[in-house]
């Protein structure tokens, strides 16, 4: 008999992530070969093209590029190519296009144009027979398997881990900080169940959410806002902790729910000061991450400590559980968000 419960596919795909991580880590030699080809080309700049959840994965990759490789990196605006026909000189540039489906026409066009303009192009995708992989010179398979729910869960984290393995290998790393992440993920999911349930009960009637984080966790905060908006139809906005204090904090009050992402490391320490200000304005704060226990919050959702550069792969797991729980508690089905399709085609 088919299980018709709301969120059944999302729940299953969240639970599948430890196995996906194990699969990716077992196949990391294939990613290392692509990294070696990149290293031989010695790019002077890295551009990242993506949409939706993949755009948040690209933001994570931007931090990895600038911190680990010490190369400048930027996020592409696809419309400069698709709408305005821009043809910048991309000699010695690495373009990484991130797309779970590999089917968005604008990302395919950006990749084709970049390759024609001299860039080394790499597709990071879950669909190796897609138009995107045909357009790119190299391709990384995130190996997440078929994802049924519209809201991305396992494809998002598989993309994060794939990007980490790729860029770590470019710098000559051995993936030491990623080894064992499957087991870490299983622990994180189990540990988060009770505090996430508490957070769902506190927030089931909220209307307005602000998500925030610093450093690598900025990507997690951005993904959190998207997940809450698309599955629970909340008005959710994401800000870097630094940007939040540069104006938007004025809109935070006792009617605002704040989701703070903070791990052990420089980003988490910087987030603590942000929450001192947010808390003084009466906001109800839920903190997620390995440093959650150090923050002043109504609910603290801890995860195991990892190296900061891989923390977004783990700290987003309770965020996915929260999005699932809130959606169902509010009477929605996160497997089928209204007005959305699994593959969104834009130009």
Automatic annotation (TrEMBL):
SUPFAM superfamilies, sorted: SIS domain (SSF53697)
Enzyme class: transferase
EC nos: 2.6.1.16
Keyword Phosphoprotein applies: no
Keyword Ubl conjugation: no
This protein's UniProt keywords: Aminotransferase, Repeat, Transferase
Domain SIS residues, every copy: 34-176, 196-337
GO term, biological process aspect, one: carbohydrate derivative metabolic process
GO molecular function: carbohydrate derivative binding; glutamine-fructose-6-phosphate transaminase (isomerizing) activity
Family annotation (Pfam families): SIS
Origin superkingdom: Bacteria
UniProt protein name: SIS domain
The organism of origin for this protein: Actinoalloteichus hymeniacidonis
Lineage: Bacteria, Bacillati, Actinomycetota, Actinomycetes, Pseudonocardiales
């Amino acid at each position: 008999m088919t299980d018709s419960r709301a969120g059944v596919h999302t729940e299953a795909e969240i639970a599948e992530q430890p196995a996906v991580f194990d699969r990716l880590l077992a196949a990391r030699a294939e990613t290392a070969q692509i990294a070696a080809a990149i290293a031989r080309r010695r790019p002077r700049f890295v551009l990242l093209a993506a949409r939706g959840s993949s755009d948040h994965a690209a933001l994570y990759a931007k931090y990895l590029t600038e911190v680990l490789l010490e190369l400048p990196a930027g996020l592409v605006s696809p419309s400069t190519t698709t709408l305005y026909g821009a043809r910048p000189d991309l000699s010695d540039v690495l373009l990484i296009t991130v797309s779970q489906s590999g089917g968005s026409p604008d990302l395919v066009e950006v990749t084709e144009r970049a390759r024609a303009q001299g860039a080394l192009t790499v597709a990071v995708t879950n669909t190796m027979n897609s138009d995107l992989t045909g357009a790119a010179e190299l391709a990384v398979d995130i190996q997440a398997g078929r994802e049924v729910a519209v809201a991305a869960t396992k494809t998002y984290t598989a993309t994060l881990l794939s990007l980490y393995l790729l860029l770590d290998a470019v710098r000559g790393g051995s993936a030491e900080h990623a080894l064992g992440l499957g087991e870490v993920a299983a622990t994180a999911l189990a540990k988060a169940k009770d505090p996430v349930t508490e957070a769902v009960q506190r927030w089931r009637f909220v209307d307005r959410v602000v998500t925030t984080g610093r450093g690598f966790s900025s990507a997690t905060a951005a993904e959190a806002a998207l997940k809450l908006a698309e599955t629970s139809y909340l008005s959710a906005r994401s800000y870097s902790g630094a940007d939040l204090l540069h104006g938007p904090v004025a809109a935070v009050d006792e009617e605002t729910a704040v989701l703070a992402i903070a791990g052990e490391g420089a980003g988490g320490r910087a987030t603590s000061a942000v929450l001192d200000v947010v808390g003084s304005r009466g906001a109800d704060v839920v903190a997620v991450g390995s440093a959650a226990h150090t923050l002043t919050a109504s609910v603290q959702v801890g995860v195991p400590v990892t190296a900061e550069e891989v923390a977004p792969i783990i700290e987003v797991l309770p965020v996915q559980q929260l999005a699932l729980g809130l959606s169902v508690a509010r009477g929605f089905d996160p497997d089928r968000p209204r007005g959305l399709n699994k593959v969104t085609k834009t130009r």
